Amino acid sequence: MRACVCLFILWVLPALSGTGARGQVFWLEKRSDSLYVLTLETRTADGQRRSMSRWKLPYPVYRMATGDVDGDGREEALVGVVKRTRYSPEVDRRLFVFKNVKGHIRPLWMGTRLGGRLVDFRVCNGRLRSLERSTDGQRFAVAEYGWSRFGPAFERYLTKNRNQYESMEIFHGNRHPDGRARTDRPDGRVQTQRRPGQP
After folding, report:
1. Tens digit of pLDDT for each residue in 148-177?
2. Same domain assignment for residues 82 and 174
């Protein structure tokens, strides 16, 4: 009997009622260390299953996220895989973006790389945010991408040429790009604090 571990179930309560993400959900199942299955399930407004589609990923997976990165009002599945590509023969982290097309999973973008070597990614306010490292592995950058007809379109660096710790803090939203630490206030607003020694 094959064990199937469900890594991510990204179905929120609004989606169950058919009001969120237009009644769709993506999730990822781990079948082995190098075989994952991306599943899309769509439901009607009354919660009945409309369709189910699967896409096999015969690679190790390091991250999955969902978000509307192409601006069409429907969430896409972003899956980080570890593999070689035709134009980049070394094994490295890659990003695949999948879309719901009439209840079926279809690839929207299966690129070789973004700007630098991909470390991690997330979706923030409809933008793809990436943590990238230089080819020597010593310096890091955090970039944001919009969407063009052909895939991610670079918009701006939040920071670049920083060490890994500072870049990860900015990537996760724990630090403002100018170096101020972010803290949550009791009233729910976010305030920033400068590090000691900063003006």
Report:
1. 988 999 999 999 999 999 999 999 887 766
2. no
